[in-house]
Amino acid sequence: MADNEIILQRNCEAVLIPAGTKVTLQAGEPVIITQALGGSYTVIINGNMARIEARDADAIGQAPAAAPATEVPSNATVTEDQIYEQLRTCYDPEIPVNIVDLGLVYDLQILPLPAGGNRVEVKMTLTAPGCGMGPVLQQDVETKVSTIPGVKETAVFLVWDPPWSRDMLSEPAKLQLGLM
Length: 180
Description:
Layout: E1 5-7, E2 12-17, E3 22-25, E4 30-37, E5 40-45, E6 48-52, H1 80-87, E7 105-112, E8 118-124, H2 134-146, E9 151-158, H3 171-176
């Protein structure tokens, strides 16, 4: 066994990258963690890349996901800064850069709800229209934005106009990826 291999301690769900197909990884199989960002883990198993969610971190010997925050008032103020802070915890499983710095987030809106609280709508794209990880990233964004106090509803829309290009990368992302 290689020094950086970890043996799966139990069966766990994963998503194959880039297809987005859900699979069950079997206990006893060796994996190599290639990325651990934003609470999820990208691993190599049998020559394939897969993403393991934070809730299954214990299967690869990592600390389990933190318990959800306690209930907060529905009238809590929600700011764009709070939302962007959460979005910066969402990562493309193949690229070690958050989705904001990748230039995938095109727009966000905070809409007050009549019964209190807010609806947050996020328009984002993917680096490639056919990427099977789109629904996974969409769910990641929705889940993380929903944890912000005062957010009662979250909607994430994938848009393709304008098409994503490397020009949309932030300067720090270009530097991190060696594109400067």
